[in-house]
Amino acid sequence: MIPVPLDTTTDERDLREIVGAAPETSTPRRSRRWRRRTVLGIGVVLVVLLAGGGAWYVFGRERARSVSTEDALSSFRKNGATAADAEGRALLGVYPATATGSESIGIPGFDESFGPKAPVTVTQGDGGCFAYRADLNSHHWRTWTFCPTDAATFALTKFESWTARKAPGLNIDSLTTSTCRTPLEFVWRSATAGDTRDGVCAGTTDSDPAVTNDAGTFTVVGTSRMRVGDETIDVVHARTTDVFTGAQTGTERDEWWLDARTGLPVKITFDLSLEGGPSDYSEHGTLVLTSTHAAR
Predict the structure, then answer these.
(1) Would you state the pLDDT for residue 125?
(2) Which structural domain range is residue 134 located in?
(3) Nearest-angstrom CA–CA distance, 190 and 265
(4) Are 24 and 111 part of one and the same domain?
């Protein structure tokens, strides 16, 4: 440091400015450092609290469980599904089945897996129709309704999908119903590989009246034999492709293996992706019957 000569005419303030050693200049610096450390500490605390709250929100939610065949059978009996079997239709009752895959409702941390058990319930209605319901887990099921038409043994006339999620402060319970003004033919006489049929459906959810349109195409892939449980059966392998427009947009591509005698789906793979509406939605999985014998 260069020595500074002291002049009797220099006051204390001037001296402090010359030597730069006055305590007043250090106090703001300490204050600024304290403020920076305080802000940083508050930020860390907020991150911890938000992370902890998010973890409590996600991990505190109700988890889906696998639905047992016994549970499905109890519901089947409780609902009084006692219609008589009909020739050429899938036998009513509960079929054991397994499922793999998952469903996403577009909220991080709320994806859920299917199965491993996923019983299928078949009920019969008026006009030769039958409904095929798959309980993929306790929070998600899908139902397809097939009816005879003038041109087809069975055609898809309606399908429904129900999804639920429960967590602290969140309760989602959504039922989507689609009806087909032009039923999508699934089974008809003299169907051969490469044949196609088209259908037009439209759906809404019980929480949103906005309409999602569905243009579907059914394509016969071929025939084969498949082992289902303790027997080998003749099956028709088919593919459906759907293009969705309107309230939600997206696509679905499913593969079907149908019992050639009754039209009963014994295996389905599905790949669905939707955008728009209340949230994005997707599901991807496989459903396989483990027996062609239904319990009642």
Answers:
(1) 84
(2) 64-289
(3) 19
(4) no
Q: How many CB atoms lie within 10 A of CB 169?
A: 7
CA distance 196 to 145: 20
| Secondary structure of residue 18 in the 3-state scheme | helix
Say if residue 277's pLDDT is above 50: yes
Q: Is residue 294 part of a domain?
A: no
Query: Average pLDDT, stretch 262-281?
Result: 93
What is the arithmetic mean of pLDDT over 73-96?
80
Indicate whether 56 pLDDT > 50: no
Instruction: Indicate if 48 and 141 belong to the same structural domain.
Output: no
Contact 172, 165 (CB under 8 A): yes
pLDDT greater than 70 at residue 42? no
Q: How far apart are CA 256 and CA 260, in angstroms?
A: 12
* CB within 8 Å of 139: residues ≥ 6 apart: 64, 112, 163, 164, 165
Residue 188, number of CB atoms within 10 A of its CB:
17
**Mean pLDDT, range 237-245, rounded to an integer:** 98
Residue-level pLDDT at 137: 98
Q: What is the CATH number of the domain that holds 264?
A: 2.40.360
Residues 236, 187: contact at Cβ < 8 Å? yes
Q: Which ranges of the chain would DSSP assign to H, the alpha helix?
A: 12-19, 26-59, 69-78
Q: What is the 3-state secondary structure (H, E, C) of 118-148?
A: CCEEEEECHHHCEEEEEEEECCEEEEEEEEC
Our count of domains for the chain comes to 2
Structure tokens that stand for 199 in this block: 């259908």
CA neighbor of 65 nearest in space, from 135, 160, 169, 142: 135
What would you report as the CA-atom Rg of the chain, rounded to the nearest whole angstrom? 32
* Distance separating alpha carbons of residues 263 and 14, to the nearest angstrom: 101
